[in-house]
């Protein structure tokens, strides 16, 4: 199913997320704990000042444990970003499954709602911008690099709602990603709960932009 395919694919960084693959449950939990600690630190002081020592202290782990999985702070930040983006993709899938959208615009609303929810509830997500991952260099497949989310979301709209497939739809959704990322980031710039004015306007702008290209007349009413 295209919807479930949205969460497929390797990391956006093009490099292993960790030095030692966490194939055991305990190792995976340890990596998550380190990333949770990194997210808390990033949320408090920003990613520029984050150090592996800070992460070790916050996670109550040795610096050796951090280096076992992350050779340096750059790989650690890449892993944190990739996890956040992967969680967002999974949230979009969950929103769509739960709401059973009847129109393609409602599926787009699911993606926007999931994005807002990540800003409110995923620690560190406000700092690590979504589009930074979407602009990462192409890895082994074009769909896993620049515009991965737009390409995969396009497949959902084609398969589930009959929108015309092709580069044009992919491009329009990449534009939507840029619009939503900018406006939602602005919404949370000052207000940790999100400025509803900017959040609402993001839906309006995206709705009007897509309605001019694909609407059957129902988008303007729901947006």
Verbal overview:
With 223 residues, the protein is an all-alpha fold. The chain has a single domain, classed as Tetracycline Repressor, domain 2, CATH 1.10.357. The chain contains eleven helices and no strands. Helix 2 packs across helix 3 and helix 3 crosses helix 4. The longest helix has 27 residues. About 7% of the residues have low confidence.
In short:
With 223 residues, the chain is an all-alpha fold. It has eleven helices and no strands. The protein is elongated, with a radius of gyration of 18 Å.
Q: How many DSSP E strands?
A: 0
The CATH homologous superfamily name equals Tetracycline Repressor, domain 2
Q: What fraction of residues sit in β-strands?
A: under 5%
Q: Which H/E pattern describes the elements? A: HHHHHHHHHHH
Instruction: Categorize the overall geometry.
Output: elongated
Would you identify the regions where 5 or more consecutive residues have pLDDT less than 50?
Answer: 12-16, 134-144
Largest sheet: none
Helical residue percent? 55-70%
CATH class descriptor name: Mainly Alpha
Mean pLDDT: 84
Helical run tally: 11
CATH topology: Tetracycline Repressor, domain 2
The rounded Rg comes to 18 Å
Structural class: mainly alpha
Based on the structure given, which CATH architecture is correct? Answer: Orthogonal Bundle
Number of domains: 1
In whole angstroms, how far apart are the ends?
27 Å
């Amino acid at each position: 199913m295209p919807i479930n395919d949205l969460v497929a694919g390797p990391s956006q960084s093009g490099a292993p997320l960790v030095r030692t693959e966490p194939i055991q449950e305990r190792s995976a939990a340890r990596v998550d704990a380190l990333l949770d600690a990194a997210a808390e630190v990033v949320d408090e002081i920003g990613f520029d000042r984050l150090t592996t020592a800070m992460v070790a202290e916050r996670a109550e782990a040795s610096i050796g444990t951090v280096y076992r999985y992350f050779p340096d702070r750059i790989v650690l930040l890449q892993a944190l970003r990739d996890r956040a983006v992967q969680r967002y993709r999974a949230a979009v899938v969950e929103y769509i499954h739960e709401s059973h959208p009847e129109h393609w615009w409602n599926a787009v609303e699911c993606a926007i709602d999931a994005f807002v929810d990540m800003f409110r509830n995923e620690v560190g997500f406000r700092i690590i911008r979504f589009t930074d991952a979407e602009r990462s260099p192409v890895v082994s497949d074009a769909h896993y690099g620049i515009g991965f989310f737009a390409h995969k979301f396009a497949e959902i709209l084609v398969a589930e709602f009959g929108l015309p497939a092709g580069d044009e739809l992919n491009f329009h959704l990449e534009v939507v990603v840029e619009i939503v990322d900018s406006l939602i980031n602005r919404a949370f710039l000052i207000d940790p709960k999100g400025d509803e004015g900017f959040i609402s306007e993001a839906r309006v702008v995206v709705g009007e932009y897509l309605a001019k290209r694909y609407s059957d007349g129902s988008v303007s009413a729901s947006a």
